[in-house]
Design brief:
Layout: H1 17-26, H2 39-51, H3 54-57, H4 63-75, E1 79-81, H5 83-88, E2 99-102, H6 108-123, E3 127-131, E4 141-142, E5 147-148, H7 151-165, E6 167-168, E7 172-173, E8 176-181, H8 187-191, E9 203-209, H9 211-219, E10 222-226, E11 233-238, H10 239-253, E12 257-260, H11 261-266, E13 278-279, E14 286-287, E15 292-299, E16 304-305, E17 308-309, H12 311-331, H13 337-346, E18 349-354, H14 356-362, H15 370-398, H16 431-435, E19 448-449, E20 461-462, H17 464-472, H18 478-487, H19 498-503, H20 512-523, E21 533-536, H21 542-554, E22 559-564
Parallel strand pairs: 2-3, 3-8, 8-9, 9-12, 15-18, 21-22
Antiparallel strand pairs: 1-15, 2-15, 4-5, 6-7, 10-11, 12-22, 13-14, 16-17, 19-20
Helix pairs in contact: 2-4, 6-7, 9-10, 10-21, 12-15, 15-20, 20-21
The structure holds adenosine-5'-diphosphate.
C-alpha cells in the first residue's frame, strides 16, 4: 500500500561539479524514452529498485516510503552503495555486488570454468578474487596426458588475458586478486610474478600467510612446504629468507601484499560453511568460495555539525544502510547459481565509511595522533554495534541468515542475526568522488593541485576545508595557494600556523607507523577487512617496509598493502584517474 498523498523524492541531490562529471562518464543510463537520466533520476531508480525487496517480507509494505528514505540518504550523500548497485539497480543487468571470490580447482575443466565465471562477473562490473593454492605446482605430473602442469602462475596469466579482453559493459575494466599460500611449492615464482611490470597487470597479488610461517620468521627457523592436494610435507624453506624477498619485492613495486590467512579464518563467522581462501581485489572483503558481497559507505563529512559528531543522525543512517544492503541481496541478479546460493546462505554485507580525513580536519585532529586512532575505534565500534542491532531487528522480521545456527553468533549471545558480517572498509575509489569526500580511511594525498597543468594562469584546486581555514584564520593569499599546489602539502609553508599544518597533514608526511595504526584501529571493529594503502616516501628502505609488515601483524591487521612513491607506473584499479 503506497502513501499517495506524500510528496516523494523532493530534495535535489547535493552534488559538486566534479561528482556530476563522474556520474555522466560512467553511471547515468539511457532511459526508455532515449534520454539520459539525470543524477536525481539515478538515485530514484536505485532507491525504488532496492525498496522493492520490502514486498518479499511484507505484502503490505509501504515501498514508496522506504524508497523515499533510501533516496534521501543517497541524495544528501550521507550513504552510497558500491558502484555496481548505482550502475545496475533497476536496469536489465541488475548485478549489484562489487566483490566475488571464485574457487579454482586443480583440473583444466575447473580452471576454465573459473575463467568463464570471471568473464561473466567482470562483464557486470564486479571484481574477483581467487586462491590458486589448490593447483599442483609447475612441472608436477598430469596423469591423463602424461605431461607436466604449467603451475599456478602460468594459469593466472589466462585469467589476466581474459580480464584484459572484457571491458566491463564499457564501464570499467576488471580487477582481480590472486592469492597463493606461503606453503605452496611455487611460492617464490608467485612472489616474483609481477617483477616484470608488464605482467599480470589486471591482478593484485597477496601471499597467504600462516601463523606457522610468522612464528618461523620470528624464530628464524624453517617452515614446511606442502603438496597442494593432500598437504603432505614436500620440502622446507627458511621463513626469514622468504619473508625478506616478499618485503623486497613489495618495496620494489607494491606487489605482492600479504594477507594473514589463519587470522582471517580465526574470525570466520561461518566456519561450518568452509574456509576463507581469498579476498576481493582490493583486499577488504575475505569471502568463501562462491560468495559475493555488496558494500556501502557512510560519508562521515555529513555527520559533523558545529565541530561535533551528530551520533543520532549517524545511528539513523546506519539503520537505513543495513536495511538497504540487506535488500540488495534480495534484488541482486547473481551471475551464476552457485553464487546465488552461497551469498544467500550467509547474507554478508559490508558497511563502511568514507570522508575520514575530512572528518578529522573538521574536528581539528591530526591523522597521525592517538586522538585520531581512538576516535577511529569509537566511530567504527558505533557503526558495528548499531549495524548489528539493526541486523538483529531485521532478523526478527525476515529471519536469520540460513547458516546462523552453526555460525559464531549463538555463542556470542545473539538469538538472531540477519547478516553474517556487517562491516567492511572499502577504498570507495569512485563513490567518494561522487560524494565529494576523501576516500575511505585514507589521509589526504595533497592539499592542492592544478587541474590543468598546461594552464599557468589557473588558480589551483584547493582542499575546501583548508581554503575555509585560510580565510577564517586570515592567511589566505593567491601566491600561498600556488605554493601549496606546487608542494602538495603545507609542511614547509611557514605562513600557515603550525597547529593548522599539523591538522592538515598529508599522506607522505605521515609516518608509515601511523598508517598501520589507523588501519588496525578500524580493523578492531570491522567484521571483514580494511582497505588501506600504507604509503612510503620514495626514499624509504626495505627495513622500513619490513617494520610496517611486522607492526601490521602485531596490531591485528588482516593484511597489509604498501606503496612506495614512484615505484610503479600504473595501478590495477583506476582509482584516482578521474580525480
Ligand atoms: P566504488 O567506489 O566504485 O564503489 P571501491 O573503490 O570501493 O568501489 O572498490 C570496492 C570493490 O569494488 C573492490 O575491492 C573491487 O572488488 C571492486 N572494484 C573496484 N574497482 C573495480 C574495477 N575497476 N573492476 C572490477 N571491480 C572493481
Amino acid at each position: 500500500a503506497s502513501n499517495s498523498n506524500k510528496q516523494l523524492f523532493q530534495a535535489e541531490p547535493e552534488l559538486l561539479a566534479n561528482s556530476v562529471t563522474v556520474l555522466k562518464k560512467r553511471y547515468l543510463r539511457k532511459k526508455e524514452s532515449g534520454q539520459i537520466e539525470s543524477p536525481k533520476d539515478l538515485f530514484i531508480r536505485v532507491a525504488k529498485n532496492i525498496a522493492e525487496a520490502e514486498l518479499k517480507f511484507d505484502s503490505n509494505a509501504d515501498v514508496d516510503s522506504v524508497a523515499d528514505i533510501f533516496y534521501n540518504q543517497m541524495a544528501s550523500l550521507k550513504f552510497l552503495p558500491n558502484s555496481p548497485t548505482l550502475m545496475n539497480a533497476g536496469n536489465s543487468l541488475q548485478q549489484l555486488s562489487a566483490c566475488f571470490v571464485l574457487p579454482v580447482e586443480d583440473s583444466l575443466e575447473g580452471i576454465f570454468e573459473a575463467v568463464k565465471h570471471t568473464a561473466l562477473i567482470h562483464k557486470s562490473g564486479g571484481g574477483t578474487g581467487f586462491s590458486f593454492s589448490r593447483l599442483r605446482p609447475k612441472d608436477d605430473t598430469v596423469k591423463t596426458t602424461k605431461g607436466v602442469s604449467s603451475g599456478p602462475v602460468s594459469f593466472m596469466s589466462v585469467f589476466d588475458a581474459a580480464t584484459e579482453t572484457i571491458k566491463q559493459g564499457g564501464m570499467r575494466r576488471g580487477a582481480n586478486m590472486g592469492i597463493l599460500r606461503v606453503d605452496h611449492p611455487d611460492i617464490m615464482e608467485f612472489i616474483y610474478a609481477k617483477q616484470d611490470k608488464t605482467k599480470l597487470t589486471n591482478f593484485n597479488l597477496s601471499v597467504g600467510i600462516t601463523e606457522e610461517f610468522m612464528k618461523s620468521v620470528k624464530n628464524g627457523t624453517e617452515y614446511d612446504i606442502l603438496t597442494p592436494r593432500d598437504r603432505k610435507k614436500t620440502g622446507s624453506k627458511n621463513a626469514k629468507e622468504v619473508f625478506n624477498e616478499m618485503v623486497r619485492l613489495a618495496w620494489e613495486g607494491g606487489d605482492p601484499g600479504i594477507i594473514f590467512l589463519d587470522r582471517i579464518n580465526n574470525t570466520n563467522p561461518t566456519p561450518a560453511e568452509g574456509e576463507m581462501e581469498s579476498t576481493n581485489p582490493c583486499g577488504e572483503q575475505p569471502l568463501l568460495p562462491y560468495e559475493s558481497c555488496n558494500l556501502g559507505s557512510i560519508n562521515l563529512v555529513k555527520f559533523v555539525k558545529n565541530g561535533k559528531i551528530d551520533w543520532d543522525d549517524l545511528r539513523n543512517t546506519c539503520n537505513i544502510a543495513v536495511r538497504f544492503l540487506d535488500n540488495v541481496i534480495e534484488m541482486n541478479n547473481y551471475p551464476i547459481k552457485q553464487i546465488d546460493e552461497m551469498t544467500k546462505k550467509n547474507r554478508k554485507i559490508g558497511l563502511g565509511i568514507m570522508g575520514w580525513a575530512d572528518m578529522l580536519v573538521m574536528l581539528n585532529i591530526p591523522y597521525n595522533s592517538d586522538k585520531a586512532t581512538l576516535l577511529a575505534e569509537e566511530v567504527m565500534k558505533f557503526i558495528r554495534d548499531e549495524g548489528r542491532k539493526m541486523s538483529v531487528e531485521l532478523a526478527e522480521k525476515r529471519g536469520s541468515f540460513p547458516s546462523f545456527d552453526k555460525s559464531i553468533y549463538p555463542a556470542l549471545g545473539f538469538k538472531a542475526m540477519r547478516n553474517a558480517t556487517i562491516t567492511t572498509i572499502a577504498p570507495t575509489g569512485t563513490i567518494s568522488i561522487i560524494a565529494g569526500a576523501s576516500s575511505g580511511i585514507e589521509p589526504y594525498f595533497a592539499l592542492a593541485y592544478y587541474r590543468n597543468v598546461m594552464d599557468n594562469n589557473k588558480l589551483p584546486e584547493v582542499n575546501p576545508y583548508f581554503l575555509e581555514k585560510a580565510h577564517e584564520s586570515k592567511f589566505y593569499s593567491e601566491s600561498l595557494m600556488n605554493k601549496l599546489a606546487d608542494a602538495g602539502n603545507a609542511h614547509d609553508l611557514t605562513e600557515v600556523p603550525e597547529d593548522i599544518r599539523k591538522v592538515f597533514v598529508t599522506s607522505h608526511e605521515i609516518e608509515p607507523v601511523w598508517h598501520v595504526k589507523m588501519q588496525a584501529a578500524f580493523q578492531k571493529y570491522t567484521d571483514n577487512a580494511v582497505s588501506k594503502t600504507v604509503n612510503f616516501q620514495n626514499t624509504a628502505t626495505i627495513e622500513d617496509v619490513e617494520k610496517a609488515y611486522m607492526l601490521a601483524y602485531d596490531l591485528g591487521c588482516k593484511g597489509i598493502t604498501i606503496y612506495r612513491d614512484g615505484s610503479r607506473l600504473g595501478q590495477v584499479l583506476n582509482i584516482g584517474s578521474v580525480k
